[in-house]
Amino acid sequence: MALRQRFRNLADKLAVDAEPGLSTTQLMLVNHDLKPVERERRQWGPWNFVAFWIADSFNINTWMISSSMIIAGLSWWQAWICVWLGYSISACFIVMTGRIGATYHIGFPVIGRASFGIWGSLWPVFNRAAMACIWYGVQAYIGGTCVYLMIRSIWNGVMSSIANFATLVVNDSDFTRFARKPRDAVWSQLLTIPLGFAITSFIGIIVSSSSTVIYDQPIWSPLDLLGRFIDDGGSGQRFGVFVIALAFALAQLGTNIAANSVSAGTDMTALLPRYINIRRGSYICAVVGLAMCPYNLLSSSNQFTTYLSAYSVFLSSIAGVIVSDYYLVRRGYLETKELYDSRSTGPYFYTWGVHWRAYAAYIAGILINVVGFAGAVGTKVPMGATYIYRLNFFCGFLVSLGVYWALCKVSPVPATSDRWMEVGEDLEDEAQPTDDGSYDEEREAGVKTLDKKDVREVNF
């Protein structure tokens, strides 16, 4: 008994701040970081999203992705066209998923409950958090290498163990939930993402192509190129390397915090909201990211691009389910307060808290790419599977989207609308569930009931 009491005391000390009177089940669904963003905290306008994506585009892995195309045999202009096409398409997906957060001011972990179920959403959240940890490690390792180059450029021969210093489609709503209006998160992202990443990629493409002339071989990593400058140059080159490496290190730090640390922290909050908030989740992300030996993913351009493809296989299926659920099945209609309710009669509880339609579609989206993925890592597979895998994100996204829509047509889900209806702006405060899982009428006082008559015009 004494040991159990000690454990309870320790658990209470580790718990994050929560509203009093909530049961254990309710504490698994909500904390401050998971609640809808209050009106006074919705401060992001269009230029905030422009600045966010410009900052996110300026980093070394953007350079590496584009320069790896040169290694693969593309010319500089072919590679740049690929960059523009790829990031323009990515921006469309970002805007589709981000609009949900900008409308209802809830993040990806809570949005996932509508599609996958109250408890079924934990797996997609864990999936995204794990990917963020991996990307955190990669970005941190790259940033650490920048610091290493800075040290080398100042003190010749001084070696430092940088190995100890060792990444956004599905969770854009974690950021767009802070938007003042949904349209603030549309064009600002749709234009800035391809533009910002294209500029950084263009630099990487040109430099990688130029390295072929200078060193008789294309160098895909700017860090390797800077290292060559130190080895072959004098004091002027060393000073230049120091300044460039410093800029890269700051860029990696900003990108890692915004794109990986905050994302992982937000996702982990949903996994264990009683004990994890965004800050604690970010610390966990840092530990996991550094412990998974991120430098192995950067050992070659082929290793790096293989990892990126594998990354797409899983997240594309999650994105397909969420987009299908919000845009095609529910027509923009969500009952936000029900996303924090674990009652078995709730519209998002489905079967024991897990939505079987969503998981069937999710698995279908993965299966379409599994054989091709095996071929990408060295197994001999039919050529048709290889062709499909070359379009892995699109195949996974479209298959999961189509399967989910078809299943919901055959077996309809509750809380849907027969016309387009976004009512996020109509909900100012959220009711809190009581111990029995129902909503306290006194707490719910002042909360506007979501009614299908409350139709807000869609304004892009």
From TrEMBL:
The upper taxonomy is: Eukaryota, Fungi, Dikarya, Ascomycota, Pezizomycotina
Q: How does it sit in the membrane?
A: Multi-pass membrane protein
Q: Which GO terms describe its cellular component?
A: plasma membrane
Q: Where is the composition biased (Acidic residues)?
A: 424-443
Give the residue ranges for region: Disordered.
424-460
Keyword Methyltransferase found: no
Q: Where are the transmembrane segments?
A: 49-71, 77-96, 103-123, 129-151, 190-215, 239-259, 280-298, 310-329, 359-381, 387-407
The protein's location, in the record's own words, is: Membrane
Basic and acidic residues compositional bias, start-end:
444-460
**Entry keywords, A to Z:** Membrane, Transmembrane, Transmembrane helix
Q: Does the keyword Membrane apply?
A: yes
Chief location category: membrane
Q: Which InterPro entries match?
A: Pur-cyt_permease, Uracil/uridine/allantoin_perm
The protein, known as: Uracil permease
Gene3D superfamilies named among the record's database cross-references = Hydantoin permease
Per the similarity annotation, which family is this? Answer: Belongs to the purine-cytosine permease (2.A.39) family.
Single annotated GO MF:
nucleobase transmembrane transporter activity
